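ARCHIVE CARD
CATEGORY: sequence design from structure
SOURCE FIELD: tokenized fold
FIELD CONTENT:
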């Protein structure tokens, strides 16, 4: 059995966004993210292989974790950032 490393971070969206597999539009705001990586030890170095990424949805008195595709999450964040830049350029 190999060891699992979990890292936590947060990301902030300025605009509402969608993720595949989730029916609702997600509100702008800051979201907690956790990534699990399997530690694979080799002869010369250690490799971390991502096995799960979770985004935490918080509402009144509830927290729900949804598994997300990290590439899709990165694309949604990049789209949000592009929207911020375009909006700033209009000012």
């Amino acid at each position: 059995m190999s060891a699992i490393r979990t890292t936590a971070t947060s990301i902030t969206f300025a605009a509402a966004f969608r993720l595949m597999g989730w029916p609702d539009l997600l509100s702008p705001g800051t979201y907690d993210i956790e990534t699990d990586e399997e530690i694979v030890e080799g002869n010369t170095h250690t490799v971390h292989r991502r096995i799960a990424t979770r985004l935490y949805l918080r509402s009144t008195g509830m927290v729900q974790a949804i598994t997300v595709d990290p590439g899709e999450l990165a694309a949604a964040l990049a789209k949000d950032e592009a929207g911020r830049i375009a909006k700033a350029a209009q000012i």
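CARD ANNOTATION: The longest strand covers residues 46-59. The longest helix spans residues 70-90.
SHELF: design records, drawer C
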